[in-house]
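Retry 2 of 3 after timeout on previous attempt. Resubmitting structure tokens to design endpoint.
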């Protein structure tokens, strides 16, 4: 498992240490003929270090007189080691070596704390949710993206049948059990699924519990609802967890809009209050928390090879890698995005059948992700398996250069749900600060929040995602009679213009594009279906980058951009929102004339 193996002799150690790399590594020391360092039948010595040469000089060098430091010079004869590029890589490799070397005691040596998860007991006749640290009977997917049993020898079944037979869904990882319990409790307040843990035998004579008395449970225990009604409520809960709460937010918004259209203003106000109550709950949720069998992540770490970064992939609750990605590759005709995409597709396949091993590897990911000083970056595939390739390329550049990573949302288990009257889903600690004397914090915060809402769209007009969703591929290059542009021309123009404005707002080396040639695509139709998807993906990424720039309190919204001629970040953010809303209206006109617009 370890890449290098050397023989050590105390009599011939001159120059031995100089040949060792002064870099991070995982190593294993043995006595003669493969015995342990403590004699025949003893255990080998396994550890990781930030500097292999210095560590071996201390362990194997000539000991100082009366020193109490551990010295194994007279015991070690065989050395194995593998250099690593990051602490994350060292931790993962150390786990694998310890698991192989000490199969009975490795867990105690690593002191891994299992990740806290929310478990949806779908195998129960009356499903419920609970918090657990045990990952068992998990529904997984094979590496072609298809649903598959966690045991590869099991027969192929449809996803719904599989979930019914294997039972449970898991959501996480959360930073702690307390955080998972708080989120589960607060989330279930919006539903009427049972909270009790007993197996139910519905009996009309059963008195019920406090939740049924408060109308917070459908009360299947005394047949307060039909089985179909209860299963429908469970489906709502599952959809809530599957979409990180977005399904419920959409449901409340639709209820509010329908009530407003029917002039039922009290009902609309009640729906709006539910939305306001939901927002701070969803704002706390870390990006990594999602259904475990659908958690597909790419971790970028510094590489142990010159000019490279190390990539790891987490899928089906298993860590894969490292795979080295050469950042300084010369003479390569392909773009970085296409190289990253190819590397992800070709990631080595590993099947883990042990629930214990899955739990442990998830614990390694969770330990790294929630560190206060986390090194490296992580990116997630969406529910369709698409990757944010442009963001990944930017992240690779930051890791390679040693720059600060993207900010992440951190879950707070102590924050009160009722504390803010409004907290948008982009809220982070960058907007939570104490103003200096005489400064009105609400003015600055409110301006930034309103700008980000404006960039998100969807208030006075349809949002971008709504306008482009389910656009038929054969009509993307069609120019309707009486209009100058196709849908592809408008989408690609919006992407190019938004990228140009973002680049101008944040890049001191900005070079302006040529108008109009560089702002419009060359043809009415996209060259491929992938080009359409990439344009939309890039548009979303750049919009997020602009929102991040606005959100950062270090950005002076009113200061003139040094390399401009009077523009400010405030002006550029408003320009993006204005430009996008104008062309979204044109996109809707295109869809209307093509007969594919559903308001």
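Retry 2 succeeded. Sequence:
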């Amino acid at each position: 498992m370890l890449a290098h193996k050397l023989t050590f002799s105390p009599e011939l150690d001159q120059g031995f240490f100089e040949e060792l790399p002064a870099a991070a590594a995982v190593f294993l020391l043995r006595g003669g003929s493969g015995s342990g360092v403590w004699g025949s039948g003893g255990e080998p010595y396994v550890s990781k270090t930030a500097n292999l040469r210095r560590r071996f000089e201390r362990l194997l060098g000539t000991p100082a007189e009366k020193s109490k430091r551990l010295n194994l010079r007279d015991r070690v004869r065989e050395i194995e080691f593998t250099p690593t590029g990051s602490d994350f890589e060292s931790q993962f490799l150390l786990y694998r070596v310890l698991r192989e070397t000490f199969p009975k005691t490795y867990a105690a040596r690593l002191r891994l704390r299992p990740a806290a998860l929310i478990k949806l007991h779908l195998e129960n006749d009356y499903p419920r949710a609970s918090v657990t640290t045990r990952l068992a009977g998990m529904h997984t997917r094979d590496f072609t993206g298809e649903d598959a049993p966690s045991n590869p020898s099991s027969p192929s079944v449809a996803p719904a049948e599989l979930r019914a037979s294997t039972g449970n869904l898991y959501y996480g990882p959360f930073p702690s059990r307390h955080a998972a319990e708080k989120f589960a409790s607060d989330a279930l307040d919006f539903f009427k699924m049972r909270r009790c843990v007993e197996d139910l035998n519905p009996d009309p004579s059963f008195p019920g519990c406090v939740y049924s008395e408060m109308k917070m449970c459908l009360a299947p225990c005394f047949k307060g609802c039909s089985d179909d009604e209860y299963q429908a409520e469970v489906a709502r809960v599952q959809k809530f967890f599957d979409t990180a709460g977005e399904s419920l937010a959409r449901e409340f918004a639709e209820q509010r809009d329908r009530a407003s259209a029917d002039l039922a203003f009290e009902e609309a106000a009640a729906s709006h209050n539910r939305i306001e109550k939901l927002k701070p709950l969803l704002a706390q949720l870390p990006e990594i928390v999602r259904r475990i069998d659908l958690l597909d992540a790419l971790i970028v770490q510094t590489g142990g090879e010159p000019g490279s970064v190390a990539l790891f992939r987490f899928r089906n609750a298993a860590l894969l890698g490292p795979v080295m990605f050469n950042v300084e590759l010369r003479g390569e005709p392909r773009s970085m995005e296409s190289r990253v995409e190819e590397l992800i597709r070709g990631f080595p396949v590993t099947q883990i059948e042990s629930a214990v091993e899955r739990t442990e590897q998830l614990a390694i990911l969770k330990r790294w992700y929630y560190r206060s000083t986390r090194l490296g970056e992580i990116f997630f595939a969406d529910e369709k398996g698409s990757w944010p390739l442009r963001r990944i390329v930017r992240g690779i550049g930051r890791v390679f250069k040693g720059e600060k990573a993207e900010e992440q949302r951190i879950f707070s288990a102590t924050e009160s749900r009722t504390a803010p009257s409004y907290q948008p889903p982009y809220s982070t600690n960058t907007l939570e600060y104490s103003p200096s004397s005489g400064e009105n914090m609400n003015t600055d915060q409110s301006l930034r929040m309103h700008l980000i809402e404006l960039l998100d769209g969807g208030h006075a007009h349809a949002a971008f995602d709504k306008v482009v969703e389910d656009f038929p591929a054969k009509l993307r290059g069609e120019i309707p009679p009486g209009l100058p542009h196709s849908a592809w021309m408008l989408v690609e123009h919006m992407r190019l213009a938004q990228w140009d404005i973002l680049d101008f707002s944040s890049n001191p080396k900005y070079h302006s594009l040529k108008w109009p040639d560089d702002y419009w695509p060359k043809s009415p139709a996209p060259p491929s279906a992938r080009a359409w998807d990439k344009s939309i993906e890039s548009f979303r990424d750049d919009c997020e980058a602009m929102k991040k720039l606005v959100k950062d309190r270090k950005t002076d919204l009113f200061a003139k951009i040094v390399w401009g001629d009077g523009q400010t970040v405030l002006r550029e953010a408003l320009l993006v929102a204005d430009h996008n809303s104008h062309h979204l209206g044109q996109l809707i006109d295109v869809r209307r004339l093509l007969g594919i617009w559903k308001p």
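Attempt log closed. DSSP finds 17 helices and 14 strands in the chain.
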